[in-house]
UniProtKB/TrEMBL annotation:
Keywords: Transcription, Transcription regulation. This is AraC family transcriptional regulator with amidase-like domain. InterPro entries: Class_I_gatase-like, Homeodomain-like_sf, HTH_AraC, INH-QAR. It comes from the Bacteria. Gene3D superfamilies: 3.40.50.880, Homeodomain-like. The keyword Transcription regulation applies. PANTHER family: ARAC-FAMILY TRANSCRIPTIONAL REGULATOR (PTHR43130), HTH-TYPE TRANSCRIPTIONAL REGULATOR RV1931C (PTHR43130:SF3). GO terms for molecular function: DNA-binding transcription factor activity; sequence-specific DNA binding.
Length: 320
């Protein structure tokens, strides 16, 4: 999956500079949580053809740390020497053993070098011990939510997959970490790219990237996107997609524009062209066959739409 063109539809946002992410790991961190945090950013870089995100692995003293399943990681640096746009804290298992004064002091100092703080899984406990969540709404792995609420009365503990409260981000677990990172990609780089990242990882509910899909509007968009994904090769008319999503075409248009910043027609076309781009890069299928699999009876029509979307043609990708 190489040589993806970087030009994207005008309904995307684009962050001006790469986001620098520090990932603070502790003994017993979760491989699953780490992968679900970093891999969507890597995919966003690959799909966009740009360095939208870079990250470094950190520990308190730059010593190697080992995951809960025995994977050793040699950090790039120690926490007190690092700075960036966001610090992601990931203790996972054994988090209470890491919540002492040394960690608290290090996190409070890091808050002046990282304008945004993000706690994955049980990281919220460490932030709360350091006083960095006082007055904020936050979540944590749900197994710890009751204990968390009792231990930190100055934090508004809520049962959510992830919570964004100003410059404090908290997340409930490994699967929710993927949702949170997709959401951030959508907010800073545009929903088109977030949807493509979701499709790359074959998440059926790719609309999770826009806002978690928790609102009625989000659920409607989720249903419509699922219908679109199931009917790429033989596209359905938008009124039929709306009917299967349980709303009128007018309502679907309004909800999708509000949630994703684009009309159903634009989003549906993007899904089909994203599949075409993947098939062009990853297979030896003819352009005519790819057009059919992407819902285009006419290869020339697909090529024109492809060039408008990505700024290049299928044949140039194959050559390059």
């Amino acid at each position: 999956m190489q040589n993806y063109p970087s030009s994207m539809q005008n309904w995307e946002k684009t962050s001006a500079a790469p986001q620098h992410i520090g990932v603070l790991l502790f003994e017993g961190f979760s491989n699953h949580c780490l992968a679900n945090t970093v891999e969507p950013m890597r995919a966003a870089n690959m799909l966009s053809g740009k360095t939208l995100y870079d990250w470094s692995f950190l520990s308190l003293d730059a010593s190697a740390v080992q995951s809960s399943s025995g994977l050793p990681v040699a950090p790039h640096d120690r926490l007190d020497a690092a700075r960036g746009d966001m610090l992601v804290v990931m203790p996972s298992y054994g988090f209470r053993d890491h919540a002492g004064w040394r960690t608290q002091a290090a996190l409070r100092a890091a808050a002046s070098r990282f304008p945004t703080l993000c706690a994955m899984d049980t990281g919220s406990w460490l932030f709360a011990e350091a006083g960095l969540l006082d007055g904020h709404k936050a979540t944590i792995h749900w197994e710890e939510l009751t204990n968390f609420a009792e231990r930190f009365p100055d934090v508004e503990a809520v049962r959510e997959r992830f919570v964004i409260d100003k410059d404090r981000l908290t997340c409930s677990g490994a699967m929710a970490a993927f949702d949170l990172v997709l959401h951030l990609i959508g907010q800073t780089q545009g929903q088109a790219l977030a949807l493509e990242v979701a499709q790359l990882f074959m998440t059926r509910d790719s609309a999770r990237s826009h806002s978690g899909g928790a609102t009625p509007a989000g659920r409607i968009v989720n249903r419509a996107l699922a219908v679109m994904q199931e009917h790429v090769e033989n596209p359905l008319p938008i009124p039929e997609i709306a009917r299967r999503a349980g709303v009128t075409q007018k309502t679907l248009d309004a909800r999708m524009k509000a949630e994703l910043g684009a009309s159903p027609t634009t989003v549906y076309r993007r899904q089909r062209l994203t599949l075409a781009r993947k098939l062009i890069s990853d297979t030896d299928l003819s352009i005519a066959e790819i057009a059919l699999r992407s819902g285009y009876m006419d290869p020339a029509a697909m090529t024109r739409a492809f060039k408008t979307a990505f700024g290049t043609t299928p044949s140039r990708i194959r050559q390059g």
